[in-house]
From TrEMBL:
Signal peptide: none annotated. This is HU family DNA-binding protein. GO terms for molecular function: DNA binding. Pfam families: Bac_DNA_binding (PF00216).
Amino acid sequence: MDKIVNKKALVDCVAEKLEISKKNAAVAVDTVFEEIANVLAEGGKADITGFGKFEVTERPARMGINPATKEKMPIPASKAPKFKASKSLKDAVK
């Protein structure tokens, strides 16, 4: 059976392990996610030792093909978040 951890399950786990209310655990989880998003939005990197590194990559502009019409179309440059797992996380998954 596959185990899936969503935000609610993460909040429940944090609340149980830290013996705090689910409301406080939700605030803690939201704060972590918001801080990572804020750092990335400012062009920085979030390096969480033992877990991995979040950073922003830039995708250059390029020509693509509209699958419906087969016409070539320009795709503008964009930025995207990227995650690279740490060695210890990779080892834990093996």
